[in-house]
Amino acid sequence: MIRGDVMRKGVSSLLMIVLTTLTVALSGCSSDKAGESASLDQSAGASTETVTGTADTASEAVADDLSKLIVGIPQDISDLDPHYATGAGIKEVLFNVFEGLVKPDASGNLIPAVASEVNISDDNKVYTFTLRDGIKFHDGSLVTVEDIKYSIDRNRGADGSEPLVSSFSNIESVNIIDDSHVEIVLTTPNSEFLPLLTVAIIPESNTDPATNPIGTGPYKYVSSSPQENFIVTRFDDYWGDKAYIKDVVFKVEANSDAIVLDLEGGSLDMVARLTSAQVAQLSDKFDIYEGTMNLVQAMYLNNAVKPFDDVKVRQALCYAISPQEIMDFVSDGAGTEIGSAMYPSFTKYYDPALNDTYNQDVEKAKALLAEAGYPDGFTFTITVPSNYAQHVDTAQVIAEELKAIGVTANIQEVEWNTWLSDVYSDKNYEATVVGFDASTLSASALLARYCSDSSKNMFNFKSDAYDAAYANAVATSDDAEKTKYYKECLKILSEEAANVYIQDLPEFVALNKKFTGYEFYPLYVQDIAKIRPAQ
Amino acid sequence: MKYIIKKFFSTIVTLVVVSLCVFLAFNVIPGDPALRKLGTEASQELIEQTRQQMGLNDPLLVRYVRWFTSFLHGDMGTSYNYNVPVAGMIIDKIPITLTMAVMSFLLTILVSIPLGIATAKHENGLLDKTITITNQIIMAIPPFFSGILITFIFGMIFKLFTPGGFVSYTEDMSKFIRYLIFPSVAIALPKIAMTVKMLRSSLLDEAEKDYTRTAYSRGNNTSGVLYRHVLKNAMIPVITFLGMLLADMVAGSIVIEQVFSIPGISRILLASISNRDYPVVQAIIMGISAIVIVINLFVDIIYRIIDPRIEIAE
Fold first, then answer.
1. In sequence order, what are the beta bridge partners of A270?
2. Are residues A350 and A413 both part of a single domain?
């Protein structure tokens, strides 16, 4: 009897190990709700808030509890080396620690940072930078022109490796002119190269950038712990407007269900990118800032598979789907409609007229389907990454809308990694709902991927007119002409119905009323230096 | 001695099997660590170069053998995602998860043994009936749900702790322990219910046996029989059960760490799985398996102490 127990225990302990392994392996296939922000899904927004504070309010006089801000972030800061950081959720935090030669500001302009002056030659081939006088790294050493050359060379793979920034393969050489001037010479002229020079300038002397990050930003690194936090403190020798809050803790919130509890309980002061459902649960202890995420949400179609290889079918889908209805269902009407691959913060290129290319018209949609040879509709699958609730919800509304024209859409939720390898890399899909962002302040960041020869063209979109218009836009250095060609690109995407463009999603930021000054950027940025105690 | 050698070898075999399972599992589930790390902006060439650097282009067996040999040399590899050695990454997190498991284990013992004895002693009394019904309810509530309830009741309403306000043991030991009390309760609740039920029925079984009658006939009163004779025998299956519970608590912390925002080993494990950070996952699973095996070894030893009649099966 007792012996039996002993032996059975051996079996059950083995069983337990196997079960543990299984649980763990299976959970890999489930969704992580808090969402890992890949560089694909970016947010930040049209600046709806303005700061009126002055720079010298630095918080020596501020009460203790206001000298520390705790920010909840959905993604761990796994890369401390800014040149290897790719996740948008990582870059938005590192923005506070690192700066490039230039950096974006809240209204979407590039402002000088490590460089105090930029000179671009008339042929757009030579970019000359003047090093800001007296600018220091966090370790107290002065920034030198060698550090600039080192940082750029590291990103362009000057030692023969692959460039970390693919556009940097266009750099012919980085030359030090004198103690305060560096020039970057390009192989082929590019008038839109400056937005790429936001890459971080780091000291050449730092032998271990992966664990000891040193930059020039308003905050300097203190410590970090995997899946726990990333702690920074104010850099008092910062060259520009110094930060207000002294200590900032970025706390990793892997569980989206706990965010509201943690905010209300007082262990978080600020969280960005909340859903409207989460906002509704918050008490009046928090100010809610509303902006847009700055991404192009669409039902992306694989233009190479049947029936989406027929422009009439794609147009029929556009006529069948109403972005407004989607916004009403998914986020109580918040959001901004888009009609092509450009979101409204890019005011120069965004054309609201394109929103009306296809107004919802079920009869027209049915007629187009009949013309294309599908009078009774068809069935297809929408593959959606399950960790993005807003995209899953959107897909569900779309599936309902398409029933009206006899088209059946099956929704398949997949884990983010599966989406990356199957849908994005292998283009093995029919339709998907995601949002694309711009990684730099330039229209090409959104439009390059539609060129028929681009490796990032996951839509298999192919249009000679588009390729020509895009090439013209890149080649010209005249801004008006460039804008004209980019607008032409957008028009082609809309008319060809490359994808079913839907909206720029709304973004909500909760900030404890003890603080104020949150600013939206037209890029993926959380600028903590602007946040100050509210009194 | 023979037993220990045998146990040692079976431990090694188990660990090898586990590591092979994890390795194979990651080959079946989709996802490319290089692509995952670099995202949608990277060029094909850079992704290929990174795959090469991570050694992902080698055949499965080559990768496994390489991992295994370096693991034997004490090198757990470098995290794909964090670019730092795995050992350094997880060593700080182990005490968090272990402390929580030990706390919930102690809680389970301290509460369930007196309760189990009390219910058995007053079989079918009011206390017994109340506890039996409560037990049924508690056993039916999964820990993540009781975790959310506890956070809501004790964190939000009574404000006995700050939800998400975890403080690491490196900063403040007493705050650390205080924060872990409620998560430990969440883990312990269903275990307490099970242990009480188990101990109660085990005690009642023993009370039916002949030696109990003999003990009574020698003039012992109920308490004497219970504590001097019945309890000792009744504890044997309970100890087996408790050993399994402790192992289960280490594994069960995966859910609770998510609910209470505790940055322990399980949080890293889950994040590493979704990041396809194989070296970290391998190391943590090996760690958890080793803990489970060691705990079982201890249970065997305690067994022999409590009941010298038991010889470990050869």
1. A71, A511
2. yes
- Report helix, strand or coil for A384: strand
DSSP designation for B79: -
Which residues of chain B have a CB within 8 Å of the CB of A251? Answer: 164
Residues A369 and A468 in one domain: yes
Question: Do A359 and A326 belong together in one domain?
Answer: yes
Residue A199: strand, helix, or coil:
coil
Quick one: A276 and A305 in the same domain? Answer: no
Is residue A35 domain-resident?
no
pTM over 0.90: no
Taking the C-alpha atoms of residue B37 and residue B262, their distance in angstroms, rounded to an integer, is: 24
Contact A265 B39 (CB under 8 A): no
Same domain, A170 and A154: yes
**A254 contacts B251? CB cut-off 8 A:** no
Angstroms from B134 CA to nearest CA on chain A: 27
Least Cα separation, residue A220 to chain B (angstroms)? 19
Whether A324 and A452 share a structural domain: yes
Q: Which residues of A touch B25 (CB under 8 A)?
A: 21, 25
- Domains of chain B, earliest start first: 2-88 (no CATH), 94-263 (1.10.3720.10)
Domain of A114?
98-198
All residues of chain A having their beta carbon less than 8 Å from the beta carbon of residue B169 are none
| Total domains present in chain A | 3
In terms of Cβ atoms closer than 10 Å to its own Cβ (0-12, 13-18, 19+), residue B223 is exposed
CB contact under 8 A, A264 and B156: yes
Distance of alpha carbon B292 from alpha carbon A26, whole angstroms: 20
Q: Residue A346: what residue type?
A: F
- CATH code assigned at A182: 3.90.76.10
CB atoms B168 and A225 under 8 Å: yes
Query: Regarding beta strands A408-414 and A379-385, do their DSSP bridges make them parallel or antiparallel, or are they unpaired?
Result: parallel
Together in a domain, A249 and A119: no
Do both A513 and A499 map to the same domain? no
d(CA A141, CA A504): 43
For residue A203, whether the previous peptide bond is cis, meaning omega lies within 30 degrees of 0, is: no
Q: What whole-number distance in Å separates Cα of residue A317 and Cα of residue A407? A: 9
Please list the pLDDT of chain A residue by residue as tens digits (535 residues). Answer: 334 444 444 444 444 444 444 444 444 333 333 333 333 333 333 333 333 333 344 444 444 567 899 999 988 888 899 998 877 888 899 999 999 999 998 888 889 999 999 999 988 899 999 999 999 999 999 999 999 999 999 999 888 888 888 889 899 999 999 999 999 999 988 888 999 999 999 999 998 888 899 999 999 999 998 888 999 999 999 999 999 999 999 998 877 777 888 898 888 999 998 888 889 889 999 999 998 888 899 999 999 998 999 999 999 999 999 999 999 998 888 889 999 999 988 888 898 999 999 999 999 999 999 999 999 999 999 999 987 888 999 999 999 999 999 999 999 998 888 888 889 888 999 999 999 988 888 888 899 999 998 888 999 999 999 999 999 998 887 888 989 999 999 999 999 999 999 999 998 999 999 999 999 988 888 999 999 998 7
Q: Closest Cα to residue B38, out of A293, A225, A221, A439?
A: A439
Alpha-carbon distances of A255 from A40, A164, A285, B199, rounded to whole Å: 21, 31, 21, 37
3-state SS, residue A519: coil
List, in sequence order, the alpha helices (H) in chain B.
2-28, 33-38, 44-54, 60-72, 86-91, 94-121, 126-140, 143-150, 173-207, 210-217, 222-225, 231-259, 265-274, 278-306
Which of A38, A76, A455 lies closest to B43 in CB terms?
Answer: A455
Most B CBs within 10 A among A1, A5, A21, A154, hence the mutation to make, goes to: A21
